[in-house]
Amino acid sequence: MILYEDSRAPNPRRVRIFLAEKSIEVDRKEVEIMSKAHFSDDMMELNPFAGVPFLVLDDGQVICETIAICRYFEELNPEPNLFGKGALEIAMIEMWQRRIELGLFYTVAQAFRHSNPYMAELEVPQVPDWANANFERIDGILAKLDTVLSRQEYIAGDRYSVADITALVAIDFMRIIKKKLTDQHPNLSRWHKQVAARPGSVS
Q: C-alpha 203: how far from its chain's center?
């Protein structure tokens, strides 16, 4: 199987961290987004939605979308478990994974994609007012997460999960829009230092 990715992009990093946590090695192929390589005929045939990462299996089937790829590997390699065990834990991790992905991760991405001039050819139309609206949401989301992490060690509870991977990548991605954690986020900063130190997080 081959994992197609742009090694500089945040979503492929989420998959790399997930694989590193499970000590899984997968062949990779670089697809450079800024040169629009993901819009080539060959890439569009594999993934008509023109995004990375996507995973091409040995039989030619293609799995697209970050979490779908992670779930595939979770089923093949259940331990260490990153999506939860038992009805309650699975539901809590799913809840927090979606909150982080649709809240913080998406918000940071939209602020970047609609404000950075280098993204103008990829984000059509680029809407500066939408970028500003998302910039304004970030501080509120970070404050909520800091409150959550005052009560628990990790995003979804008392152990590391896929929700922590998404949150780590989202917060690291904030650097590109010149946002960062501050003294107003002591619990989030504690958590970030802890998860960023995990061996797989440098992937």
A: 12
Amino acid at site 10: P
What would you report as the CA-atom Rg of the chain, rounded to the nearest whole angstrom? 17
Residue 81, helix vs strand vs coil: coil
List the chain domain ranges. 2-76, 86-202
The segments of the chain whose pLDDT lies below 70 read: 203
Looking up tokens 């834990």, which residue turns up? 89
CATH topology of domain 2-76: Glutaredoxin (3.40.30)
Cα 168-172-178 angle, rounded to 5 deg: 145
Q: For the segment 70-114, what is each residue's pLDDT rounded down to a tens digit?
A: 999 999 999 999 999 999 999 999 999 999 999 999 999 999 999
CA 58 → CA 26, 37, 62, distances in Å? Answer: 12, 22, 9
SS3 for 119-146 is: HCCCCCCCCHHHHHHHHHHHHHHHHHHH
| Fold entry, domain 86-202 | Glutathione S-transferase Yfyf (Class Pi); Chain A, domain 2 (1.20.1050)
Q: Is the pTM of this model over 0.85?
A: yes
Q: Which of 173, 167, 156, 109 is nearest to 137 (CA)?
A: 109
H-only helix segments in the chain: 10-21, 41-46, 66-76, 86-99, 106-113, 128-148, 162-173, 186-196
